[in-house]
Amino acid sequence: MYILWVSCFHHDASATLVKNGKIIAAVEEERFTRKKHDKTFPKNAIQYCLKQAGININQVKYVGFYEKPLLKFERVIYQHLQTFPKSLKTFVKSTPDWFTEKLRFTKILKKQTKYKGNVLFINHHMSHAASTFLPSPFKKAAILIIDGVGEWTTTSYGIGNKNEIELIKEIKFPHSIGLLYSTITSFLGFKINNDEYKVMGLAAYGNPEKYYDQLKKLVKIEKDGSFKLNPKYFSYTYTDKMHSKKLIRLLGKPRKTENEITQKHKNIAASLQKITEEIIITILKQVYKITKCESLVMAGGVALNSVVNGKILENTPFKKMWIQPNASDGGGSMGAALYISNTILNKKRNQLENAYYGPEYSTKQIKKFLDEHEIKYKTLNETNLTKTTAKLIHENKIIGWFQGRMEWGPRALGNRSILANPCNPEMKNVLNKKVKHRETFRPFAPAVCEEDAKKYFEINGEIPEPSKYMLMIFPVKNNHQKKIPAITHVDRTARPQIITKTTNPRYYELIKKFGKLSKTPILINTSFNVKGEPIVCTPQDAYNCFKNTGIDYLILNKFLIKKNDSKTT
User: Is the pLDDT of residue 211 over 50?
Assistant: First the structure.
C-alpha cells in the first residue's frame, strides 16, 4: 500500500512516498525548480516519488496534506479581526492566496496529478510529531515540537509509545519561540524562514549579556515552561513586518540587509540565542517531569538550532535524543505519511537509517551528460576515486562531491557536498568568498568518522543520533583546535557530521584516506550550492555550480572533472 503526503503553500514544499510503513522517496520541490524554499505545489517532487516507486498516482491508496488549511485560515481571520483596522492592508494583500491556493489543495492536487481518490488532512504539529517519533530508534519517547506557528499551535509536547502519539500540552499563537527568533532575525537585516541559522552563527561573536535584559522584556517564561510574548514589541499579527516601533525604541535602529554587521548586532544575536536556550531547556525539564521518558525526539524549525541541541543532554534529565534531519515544514510531509501508515493503519515502524531519499543518477546517465556537453573527464575506479580525491583535498583543492541519492533536508551529508581541507587556516575565508559567496562570519562544518569523533570533539557518553545529520554542536577539544582551524568556530565549537561506514561507505573511505595523508581524519563538508540557491540535484546543477565558483575539481559519481577542461577525451 502506497501513501503519498505533501507539504506546500507556506515554505519548503515537499513530497514523501511511503509503502507499507517504509519510506520510498522524500524530496523538496526547491531542488527541481531551483527556487530556494519554494512553497508552490510540489508537482516535480510528486513525480519523482512516483517514478522512484515505478507507479502512477492512482496506485496510491491515500494522498494527503500536512496540516488543516481551514483551521489555519480561521486563525488568520481571527488575528486580522483582533487587530483591525491596523491589519486591513495586510489582510487585503494576503487573503487572495487563501482562495487561489491554500484552501484549494484538493482541487489543485487532482488537477495537477489526475488523482481520483480521497484526500486526507493531518494537524500541523501532529505531522511534526510523527515525522520525528515514528522513524526514530525509540519505542517510547517524549516529544517536543517548536516552530513559528501551525494552525494555532506554536509549541507542543507529548509522548510517543510504539505506534501511538499523544500531544498533551500546547501553546498557541501569537506566543511563539520561532516567531520571537524570526523577529530578531528580521531586525538584524536577515530573511525570516531562511536566515535564522545565520543569526545562530553570528551569536558566537557577541556578548550575550549586553542585550539580555532588554530582550527579556519580550518574553515571560514560567517555571512550568509555559511562556508569553509581550505583544507591544511585535507587529506580525497585523503587518508584514515582524517588529514594532516599541522594539526599535528598545534596541535602536534595525539593520538594513546591505549594511555592515556591527558588534551591536552580534551582541543582540548572542542575547537572543541565550534566551532561546533558556526557554527550551526550561520547557524540556517540564516535559521530562510530565512524561518520565529518558528518550527525547524533537521537530519544528526551532529543532534545527544545533547550538541548543548540543546542550540538551548536558542540561536536562534526558539520556538520549533524536531529531528528524528535515525537522522544519519540509519534513511535515514525511511525518503525515508515516502517521497514516504507522498510527492509523498500524503498519510496522521502520527506523530512519540515513537521509538519502532523493534522486540518484546512474553512471550511464552522468556519462551521457558529460559526453553531450563535450566535457573532459577522467574515469576512476573505486579505489582510485577516494585516493585521488583525498590527495587533491590534502593539496588544498576544493572538491564538488556528487554521488548517490540526494539528501533529505537542509544539510548536505556527503552526497551533494563541497569538501575541503580543515587543516588549512585560510580555507574558511576561501570557501566563503570564492565558492559560497556568503558572509565571512559563517562557519563550516566538519565530517568525521564515528570512531574518531570523541578524539576531536567533547562528546560525553554515547554519540547522539542527531549528530549524524549535523544537528548538534560540540566543543572542539583544546589540543585539536589549532590543527583544524577551518572548522573551529570563534567560540571553539563545531557542528560535526558523524559518519558510519554502513551509512555512506565511499564518503567514509574518503575521510579515512584523507586522514592517512594529513594525520587528521576530518573534512570540511558544506552544502553543494552558493548563497541564495538550493543544494544541487542533477549533474547539470552540479556542473553549473562548479563552473561558476572557485571549486577546483568536480566528482560526478566516478568521473573526475578539472576546472577549465571542456572537451571529452
Answer: yes
